[in-house]
Amino acid sequence: MHNSCTFRSLDIRSGHNVPSLRLRQAIALKVSRLHRMRLSAIPVPSPTTTHAYGPGYEEAYSLLGTSLSTTTWGSWLPNATSISATDTDDLYGQAAWSSLWVQADLANYTSVGLYTTTVEPTPVPSSELVLPPRDYFGPTDCYTFPEDFLFGVAASAAQIEGAIALEGRGPTLMEKLIRGDRPTNYITNENYFLYKQDLQRLAAMGVKYYSFSIPWSRILPFTVPGSPVNQEAIKHYDDLINYTLELGMVPVVTMIHFDSPLYFLKDSNMSATPDIGYNNGGYWHPEFVESFVNYGKILLTHFADRVPVWTTFNEPLLYAFNFTGIDNVVRAHAELYHYYHDVLNGTGKVGFKLNDNFGVPKNPENATEVDAANRFNEMQLGGFGNPLCLGEQYPQSLLDTLPGAQPLTDEDLAYVSNTTDFFGIDPYTATVISVPAEGIESCARQNLSTNPLYPYCVTQEQTNIYGWNIGYRSESYVYITPTYLRSYLSYLWNTWRKPVLIGEFGFPIHDEASRDLPDQLFDSPRSAYYLSYLSETLKAIWEDGVHVMGAFAWSFMDNWEFGDYASQFGLQVVNRTSQERFYKKSFFDMVDFVGARGGLGHDH
């Protein structure tokens, strides 16, 4: 058996050999010494230059091709039941906005949290930045991250912002998704008002890239083209982006992260059984493409000059609901890509981000199970990857299985082809795939109401052929499967030939939420997850020639997990009463690992 330091291989992207054995041994020694020499985290340095990735607002607005009106609406407060506004003749006035919330009919909306205005930040005390004890065992790789590698942390608006009906935001699917007594998204982490302090805490840890989402319903409470833009929302995200840059960090924006405006679902049954995915995100709606493209153009008009990386859709398959939803996502994404690069002449990157717990055959020597795993992966990824990366048709498995599925025309394929700058993926874990007793074809002729295996029609489990779990188990579906990650990255790169961006990866430790604070903070299993995944990512880059563009850890703090606070993915603990944040050991370990290997984008 060889240590990875003894390998020599070719970096396919650059054509150069990887660092020599002697150099990599020196790097390994440096990695070991760095942690012993430093006592605390090193913050992101203040910026010395500025970059423009697209035209400023005035020029971008002139290219928009339509006029925008702006206004403000105020807030819908807890326990409100009636509309006091009198501007009932205004289609988009205060009364009309209030009626959106009356129709939403929120359950148990009794508090907005601790804050109603932006909180000014305070410096992070040095006592919070002291390095924790190291774990005895750790990665032994000697590779460094490429100079252009994007390392950062991620979160989504619905899961951390709160303030759901304040400052003009309109209702979304998220407010109706959770039923019963489960936790809602009404307050969460109050990041909408605490964003400056949260950014201070990230910068103090040396994090360079901050990936977040902007809610469509904050920018356009009435959703559709021609409706007014929320002036308070534009001001808020303008300040968030500027403050990120002021701290020496770089913003990465996702346009939609599951939080579809409720507009698309007002006349539909949200509990209807989907053909594919988990929930009805309204992507199938006849007005969705035009409305989403309009919303995306508004974001780009205001922020394209300062944001270098854009993700149009987060894990769209999960909320696609049916084939039309998939098709609409492909068309909307392609149109925004063309607008960014062809109209705005943006120099940044536009891509998408998909879900797929990498399907691996239970018996790799069984051709039938290999085919089943390929079906599982291509049905989740190929519906977007084939047309947008390669200009190729939807996978035959999708066309044969989903009701109403239609192939793209040659004209459509020409338009959507090669309209992504990266292939975003959230590779949390792997899934073991085998063929069900009834076979795949019989299942594919049914639906989810009659067969729980539909539409993938394979058996999914987490034990290998020998009966072992595939990895250490978490609170939820995630298992620690780093070697499968390396295979997965190669699969993505070699199949769709686009730089791979790990948009999310993280680990919720079993029963962590019930532990005392010191035990939550000393989260060694999460450190093992992050360091092993990053170590295998380095091997994929240097030994397999995979172009991995970057990796964003999920999440930078414990957050609302869609009706749940027990599954804690965060790098910080959040006190749900005081909204205090506390760094976990894994945050230090991960940043230290990346920084020692040159991946923070600044001296470490």
UniProtKB/TrEMBL annotation:
<dbReference type="InterPro" id="IPR001360">
    <property type="entry name" value="Glyco_hydro_1"/>
</dbReference>
<comment type="similarity">
    <text>Belongs to the glycosyl hydrolase 1 family.</text>
</comment>
<protein>
    <submittedName>
        <fullName>Putative Beta-glucosidase</fullName>
    </submittedName>
</protein>
<dbReference type="InterPro" id="IPR017853">
    <property type="entry name" value="GH"/>
</dbReference>
<dbReference type="GO" id="GO:0005975">
    <property type="term" value="P:carbohydrate metabolic process"/>
</dbReference>
<dbReference type="Pfam" id="PF00232">
    <property type="entry name" value="Glyco_hydro_1"/>
</dbReference>
<dbReference type="GO" id="GO:0008422">
    <property type="term" value="F:beta-glucosidase activity"/>
</dbReference>
